[in-house]
Design a protein that fits this description.
Elements (H helix, E strand, L loop, with lengths): L1 H13 L67 H5 L5 E8 L7 H22 L6 E8 L7 H10 L4 E3 L4 H14 L3 E4 L15 E3 L4 H15 L4 E8 L2 H14 L4 E9 L8 H10 L3 E5 L3 H16 L6 E4 L6 H7 L7 E4 L13 H12 L6 H22 L7 H8 L1 E4 L10 E4 L11 E6 L4 E4 L10
Parallel strand pairs: 1-2, 1-3, 3-4, 4-5, 6-7, 6-8, 8-9
Antiparallel strand pairs: 10-13, 11-12, 13-14
């Protein structure tokens, strides 16, 4: 039992995974290509081979890329090798990523599904011929969620000829290689993190983010709380004591007064503290707020929900609406929290593929059938983050191919920053947009959701909130 508990703790500590990716902490790497239809082909460590083309029964997703009006263009004069940045890519494009796949954090359980989803879409794109006569060669290197190992993993990719990086997990990890990739003028697309750092287009033109910025997510919650409590409400803030948590807190405070929300308590928890936040929750309960806005991290998501459930049981009649960062909203974390997660509010911009109501949605059918064809049905829910990231990456590359400049590293980043796209697994109304310095964040709309612990599904609350789109 101790061994199982320790392993669960490790998995959940890593399990901030797909969306938050805000903490950090072998030469071992996991470098594979997308699997061929019907089987999984994990290449041996250190090797990369092209994904093969084959038949698939998956329904082709309708292309919904809309090239934006030309406006922003990268300056390749600042590149170490301007000619290389503008060189036309033909035949094969090498796309790499860096994710935590090994180490003492049980990363294989927490992050491997993201890798599998990412690689699966790259293979799907090859099978469907989404890039015409260009074949994708995809690889993933392992940094064990340590920002100190990310530079080496990226260097290995560069040495192997990677022309685009996509879906690097972790804010510190992505930051650790941002300077290098901008100096080399290699596109660093769709970092799997919502850090506001990805909005610095002038300083770092070659780096983009995939997720809704954390501050925007917090503002979405403030707006939804105001709609639930039109006459005003008292709110307690609980967040991890880090830059990650502070972004949420500052953004919420920015709008609280405007929405008639009074902050009556503010409690923090250290990112390294795995003990239940008993004293913090006791302080919050003493104020009996109408709402709790919570931003824990990893295992802290579970310990927070458990401590809150215990305190509510001790305070009959106190049932605060609890909004929790969507970094806690993975099936892994909410399942571990059990009944304590019932009724919490969170958010997403992707369809819940596990909801029976979505079973016949064409894009869900395509995705579920494809993952089944490669023997990955068991991790399909978590793998959607990787699949969606790869889909957006391929859409950017396709737009670059169709540009007057042809396919090059420079045209790829230009496409990424002049981009409008409707993701196949996006919730109704979700549209990804970017326009240079005027709109650097790809995703800024969210659907607020409420979790049902028994059914393990989410119910949409209100409409998709789009008012924070740039």
């Amino acid at each position: 039992m101790r061994r199982k508990s320790a392993r669960l703790l490790a998995v959940l500590t890593a399990g901030t995974m797909l969306i938050a990716a805000c903490s950090s902490d072998s030469d071992n790497t996991d470098s594979t290509t997308a699997a061929t239809t019907g089987e999984t082909t994990a290449a041996t460590t250190g090797e990369t081979t092209a994904a093969t083309t084959g038949d698939t029964t998956a329904e082709t997703v309708v292309e919904t890329t809309e090239p934006a009006a030309a406006g922003w263009a990268v300056n390749t004069d600042d590149c170490i090798d301007p000619a290389a940045a503008e060189e036309i890519i033909e035949g094969t494009i090498k796309i790499g990523s860096v994710m935590p796949l090994t180490g003492d954090s049980s990363a294989d359980e927490a992050f491997a599904p993201v890798k599998d989803g990412w690689l699966a879409y790259m293979d799907y794109a090859n099978e469907q011929g989404l890039l015409g006569d260009i074949t994708i060669e995809a690889s993933v290197e392992d940094d064990q969620y340590s920002k100190d190992l990310t530079p080496g993993a990226v260097s290995k990719g560069i040495d192997n000829g990677v022309q685009v990086f996509s879906g690097i997990i972790g804010s510190p990890n992505s930051l650790a290689v941002r300077d290098t990739l901008n100096e080399e003028c290699i596109p660093q697309l769709n970092n799997l993190t919502g850090s506001p750092e990805w909005g610095k287009v002038t300083e770092y033109p070659w780096t983009t983010g995939q997720l809704v910025p954390y501050g925007t997510e917090s503002k979405v919650y403030a707006k939804q709380i105001a709609e639930l409590y039109p006459d005003g409400a008292t709110v307690a803030l609980f967040y991890v004591n880090s830059e990650f948590g502070q972004v949420y807190a500052d953004a919420f405070k920015e709008l609280a007064g405007e929405y008639g929300l009074e902050i009556v308590d503010e409690q923090t928890l250290e990112a390294t503290d795995t003990a239940p936040p008993t004293s913090q929750i006791t302080s919050i309960a003493d104020k009996a707020p109408d709402v709790i806005m919570a931003v824990p991290l990893g295992i802290g998501c579970v310990t927070f929900l458990g401590a809150l459930a215990e305190k509510k049981a001790q305070n009959t009649g106190w049932t605060p609406a609890t909004f929790i960062t969507n970094t806690c909203a993975s099936s892994l974390i909410l399942s571990a929290a059990g009944a304590a997660a019932d009724g919490i509010y969170t958010s997403n911009n992707l369809i819940d593929i596990t909801d029976p109501a979505n079973a016949t949605v064409p894009a869900v059918v395509t995705y579920v059938d494809y993952m089944a064809s490669i023997g990955k049905s068991d991790i399909a829910s978590t793998a959607t983050a990787g699949w969606a990231t790869a889909e957006n990456t391929v859409a950017v590359i396709k737009q670059a191919m169709e540009s007057p400049e042809g396919l090059s590293r420079a045209s790829i980043i230009n496409a990424a920053r002049n981009f409008t796209y409707t993701p196949a697994l996006g919730r109704p109304g979700v549209e990804l947009k970017s326009l240079g310095e005027d709109d650097p964040f790809l995703a800024e709309s969210l659907q607020v959701l409420q979790y049902d612990a028994d059914a393990k599904t989410f119910t949409s609350i209100g409409e998709l909130i789009t008012e924070f789109e740039t």
